[in-house]
Write a structure and sequence with these properties.
Blueprint lengths: L1 H9 L9 E9 L10 E4 L2 E4 L5 E6 L4 E5 L6 E4 L4 E8 L10 E2 L6 E2 L6 E6 H7 L5 H4 L5 E4 L7 E4 L18 E5 L2 E2 L12 E8 L3 H4 L6 E7 L7 E9 L3 E11 L4 E12 L4 E2 L10 E13 L4 E16 L11 E2 L5 E18 L2 E19 L5 H5 L7 H4 L6 E19 L2 E20 L4 E24 L2 E19 L3 E22 L2 E12 L2 E2 L11 E2 L2 E13 L3 E22 L8 E25 L2 E14 L2 E4 L5 E4 L10 E10 L4 E10 L2 E2 L7 E2 L2 E12 L2 E8 L7 E8 L7 E7 L4 E9 L1
Parallel strand pairs: 1-7, 13-16, 20-23
Antiparallel strand pairs: 1-4, 2-3, 2-5, 5-6, 8-9, 10-15, 11-12, 13-14, 15-16, 17-18, 17-48, 18-19, 19-21, 21-22, 22-24, 24-25, 25-26, 26-27, 27-28, 28-29, 29-30, 30-31, 31-34, 32-33, 34-35, 35-36, 36-37, 37-40, 38-39, 40-41, 41-44, 42-43, 44-45, 45-48, 46-47
């Protein structure tokens, strides 16, 4: 009643008799369970119910209200007067699958119309997964992998392409796999990828440079949080689990007027990190302490203006103590100086849309600052540990302590501005981004040639792009994308000398795609695209000028896809083949002919490569309450051989084998049950094949299989669930290095760090 009065006070008195305010809730007719994301259509408008199934609408006289939800019978209501607390009860039925909409492109499109391989997880799918961080979902996406070496995944590989680290001295912030949160570029900062209050998650596979620019050679991961809605609602959740896990989250949605809505959310997570430091006698040296706060404000008027303001603050004060000389035999570490993986991000984005008849203008502004501290105990031990057999390293005898520590402080500031014009099937736009990344590093840098580095990268990107789709016949559409980027990088670095260097390059990419509707929910597409990754600047202080810059890398990709949507199932099949040219690889060269110690590794363009594979995703509704989901990724990669001179003067050949972090196959099988009584359950199995740890050696991570489960009960607004991850307690490697660590011989050995062991927990949530 109070909300109705609030609406009436905001409306002009002349409209009291001509508009009908309606508030209510959509629920399951049998269980009374709220139905989130139910579609509400009236007149020429539409809306959706929120997490608690609630909604608030203003109807015109004569409007009918049509309410639909996948798996339920549609209801149509005719309301003649304002109504408070209307309860709309829907009954179960087998209906057509919902139309997923992909928002990450230049314009939102139905998944069936999207001519690229993309995995889309909507709010319902995210809820069924029970995950807290993108790390919990990554293994379930075909041909997606991630590299350890950080407390949370920050570096991803799609179809065998992507970075595995960004240590100090490794070059500018250029990435093959982009990572975006609410229009804010977080590439290389994936640790902030919490799933809290997400509306949709989209993983684009294959080159996306024509849409997202140089940071999307291999693909892009797009996280889209829930927008404010014109209805008051609240939700709260608490999780407790092993490893001293505790998660708390809360979100509230509040309409401020008939045009303005606010959504606030907060998430707090704590866990010990599955490692016990034996030397320091503590259990949280590898701890995860994560806080995430977000505020969103949405304004929409009757003149076609929509504003969406998003601000978030992410603070991850995580420890990093994951490596041991005995390869984590008992999840016990021995470091005397545990490291940190601390990331704090403050970000703001504003998306403004204005519609003029058949033309729509979109302006997207984004601003972010990230402060990062990454450190680790480089020797993974302590004096007492190295003194014991078989190492027998005595500092009094050797004359020096076997103790090393690396620390990098990084600050990244990013500002981007985009202006886009959409008219019919034509899109044109301009994009500008400026990014500054400053490092202060202490440790064993550039192979021991420096112990301290201060560096500064200034990256400017200006792009012009266009997209046009032409209808060849009622069922066939041909589309063309073109993009031109000017990428400029200025570098200032200081070790014992000051190095200044600048490069600039024009990058061009495009995509040609053909989409055909075959009827009965079937769609076929074929696409050819060219993506790019920017060149850069080598940072080693002793490189000569001709070896300091390296050129962009390009990827030519061909793929064919087939999608089917029916009353019970959805299926997506993609076959692809890609060719890499001017591939960026690590080489070495003698910089001073008279100095045999002047061999340094640096990045150059020296090789070609190729990849091909298949991606299949299928969801099948066996019964109205039982769903079976499968996903399969098959991948074959090859890096052509390349030869270079080593520091010892020998000739070495690398390549002529698959790429690193490119497993031959990735699989997922899941079954989910949601009964009329409110009981629900889910079981998921994922499998990742073996893969090479690095391009510089032939050591491999073994195949691993993970099983996750969930069992719970939902009644009204309340949900109680038991969950478990890695139920079989599988030991699996996420990062590996092959080098000499242990005295006295320092023999090259494969050292690996591992993913999370078994974890069990209890979750309680409520939505009002």
């Amino acid at each position: 009643m109070l909300f109705r009065l609030f609406l009436l006070l905001l409306l002009p008195s002349s409209l009291y008799a001509t508009e009908i305010p309606v508030t209510g809730q959509v629920v399951d007719a049998v269980t009374g369970q709220p139905l989130a994301d139910a579609n509400l259509a009236f007149g020429d408008s539409g809306s959706r119910s929120d997490e608690a199934g609630r909604f608030a609408l203003i109807l015109a006289p004569g409007d009918s209200l049509r309410v639909s939800f996948v798996g339920y019978q549609t209801r149509t209501l005719y309301l003649q007067q304002s109504t408070d607390a209307l309860v709309i009860r829907l009954r179960r039925a087998v209906l057509a699958a919902p139309e997923l909409v992909v928002h990450g492109g230049l314009k939102s499109r139905r998944l069936a119309e999207t001519a690229t391989s993309v995995t889309v997880l909507d709010r319902q799918a995210l809820r069924r997964s029970g995950g807290h961080h993108f790390q919990d979902l990554a293994r379930a996406v075909p041909n997606l992998n991630w590299a350890g070496g950080t407390s949370r995944p920050r570096y991803f590989q799609i179809r065998g392409m992507g970075e595995r680290s960004q240590y100090a001295g490794e070059g500018p912030p250029n990435f093959s796999v982009g990572f975006v949160i609410d229009d804010i570029d977080m590439s290389g900062l994936g640790g902030a990828g919490l799933l809290f209050d997400l509306d949709q998650l989209e993983i684009f596979k294959g080159p996306q440079s024509t849409t997202f620019g140089p940071n999307a050679l291999a693909g892009l991961i797009n996280l889209r949080s829930t927008d404010p809605a014109p209805v008051a609602s609240q939700q709260i959740a608490l999780s407790l689990g092993t490893d001293a896990l505790s998660h708390f989250s809360a979100a509230a949605n509040q309409p401020l007027s008939d045009r303005l809505s606010l959504r606030l959310g907060y998430h707090r997570a704590r866990a010990n990190g599955f490692r016990d430091n034996q030397f320091l006698d503590i259990q949280d040296s590898n701890a995860r302490r994560e806080d995430f706060a977000r505020a969103k404000l949405r304004y929409a008027d009757d003149n076609g203006l929509v504003l969406l303001l998003t601000a978030f603050h992410s603070d991850q004060d995580n420890g990093y103590d994951a490596w041991t000389p005995d390869n984590n035999e008992n999840l016990v570490t021995y470091t005397d100086q545990p490291g940190k993986d601390h990331q704090t991000t403050r970000a703001l984005s504003l998306r403004a849309e204005k519609t003029f008849a058949a033309t729509r203008l979109v302006a997207i502004s984004a601003l972010s600052n990230t402060e990062l501290e990454y450190s680790y105990d480089s020797d993974w031990g302590n004096d007492q540990y190295w003194l014991q057999a078989p190492y027998n390293f005595d500092p009094d005898v050797e004359g020096w302590r076997y103790a090393f520590f690396d620390r990098t402080l990084r600050n990244r500031d990013t500002f981007s501005q985009e202006l886009r014009v959409l008219r019919g099937e034509a899109v044109a736009g301009v994009y500008f981004k400026t990014q500054n990344e400053a490092d202060k590093a202490l440790g064993y840098l550039f192979g021991g040639d420096a112990a301290e580095l201060q560096s500064d990268f200034e990256v400017d990107n200006l792009a012009f792009y266009g997209q046009y789709a032409h209808t060849l016949d009622p069922n066939t559409r041909l589309s063309l994308n073109l993009r031109l980027d000017r990428n400029a990088i200025a570098y200032n670095g200081h070790t014992d000398t000051l190095i200044t260097f600048a490069v600039s390059q024009w990058l061009a990419g495009g995509k040609l795609a053909l989409t055909r509707e075959l009827g009965s929910g079937r769609t076929l597409f074929a696409a050819a695209s060219r993506g790019y990754r920017a060149g850069g600047v080598n940072q080693h202080p002793r490189l000569n000028a001709r070896n300091r810059p390296y050129d962009p890398e390009y990827l030519l990709n061909f793929e064919v896809g087939y999608r089917i949507t029916s009353a019970r199932s959805t299926t997506s099949l993609t076959v692809f083949h890609a060719l890499r040219s001017d591939q960026q690889v690590s080489l070495s060269s003698q910089q001073d002919p008279g100095d045999p110690n002047s061999f340094f590794y640096f990045t150059a363009n020296a090789a070609k490569g190729r990849s091909s594979g298949v991606e299949v995703e299928r969801s099948y509704l066996i019964l109205p309450s039982l769903r079976l989901s499968t996903a399969l990724g098959l991948l074959r990669t090859h890096i052509d051989a390349y030869t270079f001179a080593t520091a010892s003067g020998e000739t070495r050949t690398l390549g002529n084998r698959p790429a690193a972090h490119a497993p031959y196959n990735t699989r997922r099988y899941a079954i989910d049950y949601a009964g009329k009584s409110g009981l629900f359950a889910g079981l998921e199995y994922t499998s990742t094949d073996r893969f090479y740890h690095s391009d510089s050696h032939d050591q491999q991570a073994g195949q691993h299989r993970l099983v996750h489960g969930r069992l719970g009960y939902r009644r009204g607004p309340y949900t109680l669930a038991l969950w478990g991850r890695n139920l079989l307690d599988e030991r699996y490697a996420v990062r590996g290095f092959f080098f000499g660590l242990a005295p006295p011989d320092y023999a090259d050995t494969l050292y690996e760090s591992y993913g999370d062991p078994r974890q069990l927990g209890l979750n309680l949530s409520a939505a009002f």
